[in-house]
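Dear support,

Our group has been running a series of protein-ligand predictions, and this particular one with S-adenosylmethionine is the one our PI (initials K.S.) wants archived with full inputs and outputs. We had some confusion internally about which version of the output was final, so please treat the block below as the authoritative record. The input we submitted was:
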Amino acid sequence: MDSQQNNTSDAASEDQTVRQAEMFANRIAKNYKHLKKWAKNADVECFRIYDRDIPELPFALDLYSDRAHLQEYSKPVMDVRAQRRWLTAMHEAAAGALKLPLQSVVLKQRHGQRPNEQYRKLAASAQDFVVQEGGHRFIVNLTDHLDTGLFLDHRQTRALVGSLARGRRVLNLFCYTGTFSVYAAKSHAASTTSVDLSKTYLDWARRNFELNRLEPGRNRLVQADVVRFIEEERKSKDRYELIVLDPPSFSNSKRMQGVLDVQRDHVALVRGCLSLLAPGGELLFSTNLRSFKLDAGALAEVQMTEISEQTVPPDFRNRRIHRCWRIQEGLRTRDSGLR
Ligand SMILES: C[S@@+](CC[C@H](N)C(=O)[O-])C[C@H]1O[C@@H](n2cnc3c(N)ncnc32)[C@H](O)[C@@H]1O
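Confirmed final output from the archive:
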């Protein structure tokens, strides 16, 4: 290409960037205006504003109180410098539309990540801040990890856990920062047990408990591989009236044997949890794996009700952000010889 042709195509792509930035800002401002009213009425300060609304602008934008988390999902097609310019323009458009300083909007690129990268441990940082949700307080960090400490698509699932927890022994598997457990404990669960492999996230969970003035005595944090934990717990007499099973789609930490693959392993995990339920207890099973197919055949004898319509919040345009089932310990399970 000669230099004149180069200049022409640079100018064309710059025009396109300007047009896209404007489109992005307009859509964000429009969504925000609409959602702000809903959020105020619902007493929600962290919510999704933009959810890949425009196919050529594959971003998710989440507000966390007075900051925002902007994630880009597109595969890089441009050269690195052009991509950087384009991203900067979209970043500025998002901040401008929300009337936030640029440094309050944290931009992350999610493509190309290795499966386990999202859970790696990074250095502690002063970037933690506190948000509130339904009378609970949570520590959030937008900069140091790929995820933030609070998954917004489970806001309603957390409320459901709170509503089911009173007087029950609650087990939270793959607990991450312990947000389901905090809801359960605040709703007067008899006890909570939160299990995760990661010391970093268990420590974060401990800080979330402290922040909500919940006593450590009744709220146990266990560092373990969930698969092993279930095996061990089956041998004990400890049983639970409510279990939350929200595994990552895939995990291959050094601290566990083999890999965890929710598609391959969900039947064993669900059955394992059923064996830990006390009579009359129930299990909430959820997955974010987009391509997930429940093995209904292998779980035919289990009473499962899909409740995703109830658990996916209204600010998520993508109604398949997660799927969630409520599974009751019941006659069908007891008769089936599952245990
Ligand atoms: C997607 S997060 C779970 C989200 C969480 N349930 C919530 O909504 O806040 C995945 C968590 O699983 C943990 N994890 C991954 N593999 C594990 C395993 N085999 N046993 C225990 N925890 C595991 C990670 O450390 C991480 O905290």
